Amino acid sequence: MPDSLVRYLNQRGYQPVLLPRTGAHPPDLYAMTDSGLSFLGSLISFLPSRRRAPKCEEGALADIQEVDTTAKSLEGSVSFLKNVFHAIGITGAPKASANAARNSKFMFRLEGVTYKRAGLVDLNRLVTALPVESVPEAFRTSADLHVAYEYLYAAKLTMQRSGSASAGAGAATGTIDQMFSLQAKGRIKSDSLSTLSFAQRDIGPAVFAYKALKLRRLANGWMLEAPPIDSAGFIRTDEVGAGRPPYLPLPGALAVVQIAGGADSQEG
Predict the structure, then answer these.
(1) How far is CA 81 from CA 18, 65, 228, in A?
(2) Disulfide engineering: 206 pairs with which of 58, 59, 88, 266, CB 3.0-4.6 Å?
(3) Which domain holds residue 166?
(4) Minimal CA–CA distance to 27: which of 59, 64, 52?
């Protein structure tokens, strides 16, 4: 994922992630260790008795356009595609075709952006019922344990050619879909002569970022290091960037999530 998009998400309290699973639904338990970011499982799966899944607020957000002020070059576009493919769950390594003009420019947009967010009242209820011993021993003291309480999902990535090469040497000789070798597993659609769209195949929107709260260990349990909440019991997003920084497991980078041994990796 490009630095500009990582910065954009970090500034809004989100950790960009690459999840090797589908159907993610908050709240989930993660741990940041020296070996990387690990998914431990659904928070509910660690509780001693069957608990009702917390109420989640859901909604749509504005599309996220790649936030550099200039369009990307051909070389930059190939690198961008590779990283964002990973971030939204599309496998493959795009390459520039031989007939692609090196001075063509491209713009990108994440579309169909939605979120799911668990309320803090429900989170507190679950965390206070979480026994110390239910968390795997390797993660109890040496890790930054945290709960992902909000996920961002993207339905597709759109790539648009924003400029044409000048006539003569290096001029473009085809439409945008002829400018790249796209050996990707996903739905690739040529929406027009100048626009391509990419989406995962038949598994719905992909998680590409989350917001998290750290867990603090007490003598006989756990508590959330939580920011203020609003009247509906949801975390006040206006606190981010206003003297209360969000918890970011790996700021400035796309975190590749590992599945810890025994973790519940089923769809939520």
Answers:
(1) 14, 14, 38
(2) 88
(3) 3-259
(4) 52
Task: Tell me the one-letter amino acid at 246.
Answer: P
97 falls within a domain = yes
Read off the pLDDT of residues 43-97 as tens digits, 9 standing for 90 and up: 999 998 777 788 899 999 988 876 554 455 666 667 667 766 766 666 665 666 6
Q: For position 98, what pLDDT does the model report?
A: 54
Mean pLDDT value of segment 147-151: 95
| Lookup: tokens for 257 | 């999530």
pLDDT digits (tens, 9 = 90+) for 115-133: 999 988 889 899 999 999 9
Residue 104's nearest CA partner among 158, 157, 156, 174 is 174
Which secondary-structure segment (H or E) carries 125?
A: helix 120-128
Q: pLDDT tens, 14-55?
A: 999 988 766 789 999 999 988 899 999 999 999 987 777 888
267 falls within a domain: no
Q: Compute the distance between CA of residue 69 and CA of residue 234 in angstroms, rounded to an integer.
A: 33
Is 53 contained in some domain? yes
Q: What angle do CA 74, 80, 82 make, to 5 degrees?
A: 110
Q: Does the residue 266 lie in any domain?
A: no
Distances, alpha carbon 159 to alpha carbons 182, 188, 225, 262, in Å? 13, 11, 39, 38
Q: How many domains does the chain have?
A: 1
Instruction: Tell me how far the alpha carbon of residue 19 is from its chain's centroid.
Output: 8
CA dist 265 to 39, 47, 66, 154, Å? 9, 16, 31, 20
